[in-house]
Sequence to fold (163 residues):
Amino acid sequence: MKLHSARMMMSVLIGILLSAVGFVYAETAEEYTQLGTAYAEKGHNEEAEANYDKAIEIDPNCAKAYYFRAKLRLDFNYGLGDSIESGTLHPYIRQSISDLIKAIEINPNYVEAYQGLGRIYNKKILDEDKPLAASYFSKAIELNPAYAETYIFNQAAGKANKN
Fold:
C-alpha cells in the first residue's frame, strides 16, 4: 500500500514539474517511464513515446516501459481503435502486441499486459482470435482474481467465441 502511494505521489510530482517547467530531467528507466506516463496523461503522445523508448534503451528489461508504450499506442488519442475493428492491423497495433508480449516475457506476472493482449485479440474481427483473447483474460484472472474488470472482458470473449 505504501509503495502504491509512493508511486502515485511520484507521478503527481512529475506532473507538477511538467506543468511548471515543461521539462524534467530523468536518468533511470523507471524515471523515464514515469515521465512518459506524465506526458501521456497530458496528451503529449510523441514526448511520452520518446520517454518510453529512452527507458527501454537504458534498460531493455523494463517491463513497465514496454507496457505503457503499448498502452499509449493503443490509446484512441492515436486514432487506432477503428483500425482493430476494421480487421486491418495498423503497425502501431502490431508493435503494441510485441511490446505486451515482451513485457510478459520480462515479468510473467504482469496482469495488465495479459489484459491488454486480451483486449486487442477480443476486438479483432477474426473469430480465431477470440480463444486467444479468452486465454489472455484467463491468465490475468489466474494472476489476480480480484481484478473484476478482467472477468467482464473474459466473459465477452467467451460469448463471442461461442457464436
Remarks:
- The two ends are 42 Å apart (CA to CA).
- The mean pLDDT is 79.
- DSSP finds nine helices and no strands in the chain.
